[in-house]
Write a structure and sequence with these properties.
The chain has 2 domains: 2-47 and 158-310, Rossmann fold (3-Layer(aba) Sandwich); 49-157, Rossmann fold (3-Layer(aba) Sandwich), CATH 3.40.50.1100. It has 12 helices and 10 strands. The protein has helices spanning 2-11, 25-29, 48-63, 78-90, 108-115, 125-128, 134-143, 160-176, 194-200, 221-228, 254-267, 276-288; strands at residues 19-22, 33-38, 68-73, 94-99, 119-123, 147-149, 185-190, 208-213, 238-241, 297-302. A 6-stranded mixed beta sheet has the order 1-2-10-7-8-9. A 4-stranded parallel beta sheet has the order 5-4-3-6. Helix 1 (2-11) runs antiparallel to helix 3, helix 4 packs parallel to helix 5 and helix 11 (254-267) crosses helix 12 (276-288). The site of pyridoxal-5'-phosphate has 17 residues, from helix 3, strand 7 and helix 9.
Length: 316
């Protein structure tokens, strides 16, 4: 029964080692304490923030007896990869509109998705830009009757409650490890903004949330976050760091890539250069610049996406 599979998927205890302290000379030098929340450990294929964002979307689709779920993404999308894996596990058909670079049609991300039964439709960039237009969505709804249509990245109101549970898990893990529960900063990578919006919906007042944008020129992001979670406009406990994008989405310089690899080695933490590595490198550079006051207690949300590291990244 798919609903019982959903309960198995989401009913398990937090993974062992979900909250880990990180050790690094820079942290000692700046008198900071840093933990990582290993959301990448929840599930091998439904990883990180996707596991959280999809939680109630999948639940509702199963309750409503939906015919399937259709979503949108690029050719290396962690979201499509996770959705395909979840659909396969739950017996729920999945389909995707893929922004189609013809050359990447058979990459490992999409091969997995197809293996899990996801139906892929490739469209060019111009058509893909129409992904929020009512006209095209209505056309897709006719072609995929009974399917739930989920926006790119899974970022929509239904994704927020699953993400907000990070706080509950964090306070549980701090308690279990007998660590005083006060956290000053929660840090995470940001792309479409859904994860940050979900965190803001239940943010404890003593914790500032800082998102590190992995996209270039993402000045629109605060507005997008407020669209997803309107109360964010009255909430001043958050901020987006816009200058650590490293040249743009999925771009990385040779120097940044080697700094990310070094950090991964020093921290004994798996990182990829598109999200977790880029954001953590940004955080360490901001720590070196003195942006986090001595004595602060920080947690970094590892949002998963390690499957994306199989793609060959063009280094600048
Ligand atoms: C691994 C990973 N981390 C972070 C993000 C950013 O999350 P959001 O799009 O909710 O800002 C994404 C998705 O885009 C992702 O795949």
């Amino acid at each position: 029964m798919p609903l019982s599979t959903w309960y198995q998927l989401y009913g398990a205890a937090l993974p062992k080692q979900w909250l880990q302290p990180l050790h690094h000379p820079l942290l000692t030098q700046h008198q900071l304490t840093l933990w990582v929340m290993r959301d990448d450990l929840h599930h091998h294929n439904i990883s990180g923030n996707k596991w959280r964002k999809l939680k109630y979307i999948l639940h509702q689709a199963l309750l409503d007896n939906a015919s399937g779920i259709l979503s949108f993404g690029g050719a290396y999308s962690n979201h499509l990869h996770a959705l395909a894996a979840a659909g396969y596990q739950l017996g729920l058909p999945t389909a995707a509109i893929v922004r189609g670079e013809a050359s990447s049609r058979s990459n490992p991300t999409l091969s997995d998705a197809q293996h899990w039964g996801m139906n892929l439709e490739f469209v060019d960039r111009q058509q893909y830009r129409r992904r929020q237009e009512a006209g095209w969505l209505a056309e897709l709804a006719l072609r995929y009757p009974g399917y739930v249509i989920v926006p790119e990245g899974g970022s929509c109101a239904a994704a927020l409650p699953g993400v907000a549970q990070v706080w509950q898990d964090l306070s549980h893990a701090l308690n279990q490890q007998q660590i005083a529960s006060h956290i000053d900063h929660l840090i995470l990578p940001v792309a479409s903004g859904g994860t940050l919006a979900g965190l803001l919906s239940k943010r404890p007042s003593q914790t500032q949330v800082t998102g590190y944008a992995v996209l270039k020129g993402a000045r629109w992001l605060p507005d997008e976050i407020c669209r997803l979670y309107p109360a964010a406009r009255q909430n001043n406990g958050w901020h987006i760091a816009l200058n650590h994008h490293g040249g743009g989405y999925a771009k990385c310089s040779v120097l940044d890539k080697s700094d990310i690899d070094l950090l991964a080695q020093q921290l004994t933490l798996p990182l990829e250069p598109i999200y977790s590595g880029k954001a953590l490198l940004g955080l360490f550079r901001d720590i070196a610049a003195g942006l986090y006051p001595a004595g602060s207690r920080l947690v970094f949300l590892h949002t998963g996406g390690l499957q994306g590291a199989r793609a060959t990244l063009k280094l600048r």
